[in-house]
Amino acid sequence: MKAEYITPAVTPFTEEGKPDWESLKALYEHLISGGVSGILVLGSIGEFFAVPMEEKREIIRFAAEQIKGRVKFFAGTGSMIPGETAELSRFALEAGADGVVVISPYYFTLTQDSIYDFYADLAEKVSGDIYIYNFPDRTGYNISAETMGRLAEKYPNIVGCKDTMSGMDHTREIIKRIKPVRPDFKVYSGFDDNFGYNVMSGGDGCIGGLSNVLPGFFKEWMDAFEREDAAALSAKQQEINRLMDIYSVGTPFVPYIKAAMKALGIIRCARASFPLPSADERDVERLLEISKGYVR
């Protein structure tokens, strides 16, 4: 059984708040050697919302050069300004991205018709693979399975979605609605503990943040699916249920994931974009305790 795990990579910053190119390079090598299926830059955990446009271009260009086709490479290109989304999407695809992952405009709640119009307009302006990014906790609204289905049926370059929902109910409806008419449409979950449920429901895998810290763990989980090893799959699900405690060490979770990565020597600096908080020593101890035994 085929299963994919794509890492939404953090964006390491220097103490001055600029992209840390040395840490970015080390991170990409860490993920590729760890066995993930692909890397997404400038997703939510990549703090796309706090990175200026020119630095986004630099990060996309740098990632394309470093990854060099060794794994799938995706770029988050969503913006509050639709024209910027289209422009950055074209740039990323021309730079070598295999696809762009696009969150819809937030702040105001959009109707399903407005959501449809946003992605339809983008699909007509961008020649390349587009993935719909549904994250109601951040946008304030949900993209229905029916709306995704309408888009998938009309636009062949809308090729998949990342559905970041705490349960599998909504993702399951997307799979049921779209897979019969577009078997090639990729359906990824956005929370790590939904990976197994997603694949067993007919989805394609996960784009989950914990793989920044533990890519080897998720490679083993993918391998268990490949072998159709029920005992190993059950064990991995129970282990991820415990590892999800990493997300609850602090809110929002991004600085705490970065703190764990710094403590493990993956990146040099745990700084997150202002005004996000910083992890203290007790937080780091807790993070390392939770991940103990899983670091490869």
Describe this structure in words.
The protein contains 12 helices and 8 strands. The longest helix has 15 residues, at 53-67. It starts with a strand and ends in a 5-residue tail after the last helix. Strands 1-2-3-4-5-6-7-8 form an 8-stranded parallel β-barrel, surrounded by 6 helices. Helix 1 (21-34) packs parallel to helix 9, helix 4 (112-125) packs parallel to helix 6 and helix 11 (254-263) crosses helix 12 (281-291). The protein has helices at residues 21-34, 53-67, 82-95, 112-125, 136-139, 145-154, 169-178, 195-200, 215-227, 230-243, 254-263, 281-291; strands at 4-8, 38-41, 72-76, 99-103, 130-134, 158-163, 186-189, 205-207. Helix 4 (112-125) links the parallel strand 4 and strand 5 (130-134). The chain is an alpha/beta fold and 296 residues long. It has one domain (4-229): Aldolase class I (TIM Barrel).
Short descriptors:
single chain, TIM Barrel, 12 helices, 296 residues, alpha/beta
For the record, what is the CATH homologous superfamily label? Aldolase class I
Low-confidence stretches: none
Can you tell me the CATH architecture? Alpha-Beta Barrel
The helix tally amounts to 12
Roughly how much helix do the residues carry, as a percent range?
40-55%
Main sheet record: 8 strands, parallel, barrel
Order of strands across the widest beta sheet? 1-2-3-4-5-6-7-8
Number of strands: 8
Percentage of β-strand residues: 5-15%
Mean pLDDT: 97
